Prior knowledge:
- The complex is a heterodimer.
- Chain A is α+β, with helices and mostly antiparallel strands.
- Helix content of chain A is 30%, strand content 17%.
- Chain A has helices at residues 2-20, 49-58, 112-124, 140-145, 175-180, 250-258, 271-280, 308-317, 320-327, 366-376, 393-407, 418-426, 447-454, 475-488, 492-508; strands at 29-34, 63-65, 76-78, 93-97, 155-158, 163-167, 207-213, 217-222, 241-246, 264-265, 285-288, 292-297, 333-335, 382-388, 410-416, 434-435, 437-440, 512-518, 520-523, 533-534, 538-539.
- In chain A, strand 20 (533-534) and strand 21 (538-539) form a beta hairpin.
- By secondary structure, chain B is mostly helical.
- Chain B has 13 helices and six strands.
- In chain B, the strands form three sheets. A two-stranded antiparallel ribbon of chain B has the order 1-2.
- The longest helix of chain B is centred in the middle third of the chain and has 37 residues, at 114-150.
- The two termini of chain B are 47 Å apart.
- Chain A: One of its GO terms (biological process) is peptide transport.
- Chain A: It is found in: Periplasm.
- Chain A: It comes from Acidiphilium rubrum.
Amino acid sequence: MKVVAAALLIVACLIAGKAEAKAADYGGTLRLITTAGSGSFDPQINYTERYWEIFQAMYDGLVTFAKTSGPGSLVIVPDLATEVPKPTDDGKTYVFHLRRGIKFSNGEPVTVQAVAHSIRRLFKVNNPNAGTWYDVIVGGRTCNAHPRHCTLPGVVIDAASNTVTIHLRHPDSEFLDQLAVPFGAILPADTPDHDMGTQPIPGTGSYMVKSYDPSGGIVMVRNPHFHQWSAQAQPKGYPNEIDYKFGLSAESQVTAVENNQYDWMFEDVPADRLNEIATKYTTQVHINPLNWFYYAPMNVNIAPFNNKDARLAVEYAVNRESMVKLFGGNALAKPDCQILPPEMPGYQPYCPYTEHPGPTWSAPNWTLARAYMKKSGMIGQHVTVITEVQSPFRQIGIYLQDVLNRLGFVADVKPLSSNIEFNYIQNTNNKVQISVTDWAQDYPAASDFLNVLFSCNSFRKGSDNSINISGFCEPAIDAEMAHAETLSLLHPNQANAIWSHVDHQITRRALVVSLFSVAKLDFTAATLKNFMFSGEYMFLPQLAVVK
Amino acid sequence: MSEVSATERDIAPPAPGYWAMAGRKLLRDRAAMISLAVLVIIALLCAAAPWYAAHIAHTNPFRSNLSGTVMRHGKPVEVLGAANNPLHLGIEPIGPSWRLGPYMLGADQQGRDVAARLLYGGGNSLIISFAAAAVCLVLAAITGILAGFFGGWVDRVISWLLDALWAFPVFLLAISLSVVLIAHGIDLGLFRLDASSLALPITIIGVIYVPYVARPVRGLVMGLRQSDYVLAAIGIGAPAWRILWFDILPNVISALVVFAPLIIALDLLTEAALSFLSIGVQPPAASWGTIIHDGESLIYTRPMVAIAPGLAIVITVLALNILGDGLRDALDPRAKLRN
């Protein structure tokens, strides 16, 4: 029933969308602005919201999330495959029939060889989630251990029938979600098996990159080989060109959007501008719920946070309500103690680190914080907080430094460029003790927070792609998460109960300071029409009308 | 009548020395004296920062105060209060009271007293700029004198090093060094500088301006090396250190004194730039540059957070430049160093 309802929802959205879409809406240049680039432009490497928002218009996977707004945006639809396959073999085998006649932006046809190569490439380029998501494919573990020699026997192609069969080690209810995100992009079969860095890779989407300057911006134009095969999966976009410029601060971005110099800004609107836009530009403000939280990972493998009492001291001392103020107030953020955000399956409200433990955070508990600090024996220990240079990260970092100093640590804060901070804090070689970062869902599943951020497989020493920033590894918890993943295909309620249990266990281990969960605010120019917000990809630039 | 008696010769006042004459000339320069007074007042105000924070602002300007309240017009007001708009978006720090007391210049995003931080920040900015200028002038004097006096391979090596340093745009060099060193500081065995220590920006800023002073000093010394009294000293076999100490250095010092205010002003601006980019003074310590950075994100709602330190920098640099002009006129009347 849920599937039928979701399908109806998508159809309704598309009909509504079509009713509004006119020939006159096509054309023009959509002007986007952000502070800086986000590292590699390789869709199988880059793990940032900034680029995923545009990758979805440039690349296609076998399946994808529907390119629409509202709840329908979290429904998986066929993309390069003709249909979303039903798993067979007790949930362990998926057979994808590839569409014919689709070409990459360089003119090469999409073939089953390209599909197999793209999936193998995930391991060869050390995809951040190769260890947590894709190792479920038969041969995935060997590929993770020996990426250069990855053959991945679990992916079987048949050129005659144009099918790709993927065999899994065990049923995985999230496998299609994981193929639907930009990591699952199908790339040409001759794409090199290394991070392509600043060199854009041809894709099958409605747009392709005309030019990419890591310090200047991206110019995207229509893909000459694109024809719309599914408006749900890859709609023909409205703008003829999408110019994504880098280099303006968030403050300047707000002014530029107010003046219609840009149509949309990537950064969160700075807290001091919120009143202004909410007063003068109310109709240009779009607030949408999102599974997204801000947190401060504590490295459990080096001092002082290899001591649980030290971590508990920080958990009890942090004033989450103050943090909410730094983000712009209660309309945009809610204090948080646990990992799973409120809209996520398996979420059961839980907050032990507060004055009155219960479902919600109420106030910091300095009595317990000081007691744990004293017990930890870490008073006088030097701690460095690593954060991004931009607001609200920098301000959160300064506030955390203040809390740490009050607890008795000797704390300093190092704000780093947003270009490097996210990778820097992941690499164990940098010996980061505590940092400030955020995490938004890749897809709506509890494992996307718990498994991705806290499993042993997500922790890779010396790698920039070690998303388990705390460095936590507990095989018993991994086993519990694996059990939940196995159950979730056929017994979602039981699986959700386990996810909830894992969420609370991880929260009790005090691996990260959950600060607050947030809604997404987008600010657009008066010239931009048809703003569409996907729960998966967020802003869908190709569906914006700028003529 | 033209002859002067022995008695008259004995009672005639001695001719004023070079430094005394320069001092008198400087005292007569009203603009330079006003500038000096302004600098002294700024320095005294900055030195009074702890007293101001404790007895007037009643606050610790290095601690976040996100949930605090303050009395305004007899009523408690949140230091960071919710904005009033239809979408209930935004938080605004309390604005300036314009009265001597808490939050005279308002609060920043952490709810800290801007006026108190301005004074503390000024102290750090002045310490860094004066100390960096001292480092620069000492290094420049040593390298310039050695290169100019000894010539030959000594001059070639030093000039090559100075040229290499000069080849980098000064801000690019400062930023590069800061970015590299800000994470872990400097650790060269005996010489260690912590990343959060003020000594780190002092060292970086001090070093990058050395060529700008060392080159003119080298030229000056090369000229002095050919002067009669130096040639005479060499001729009678005086040791090099004696010539450098007694004949060269006194003539170089006046040039260094003329350079000092200009280098201090440059250092102040460089420090502000580095701190603005988060690679100078590290939080929670403040400098005028860091306060401008804090104010950047409040420029539309609480502009005073950025304007106040900006004004302080303008006034200080202007005063230093005018004082520098006065010193140049007093010490170098032939204006050898005018360009």
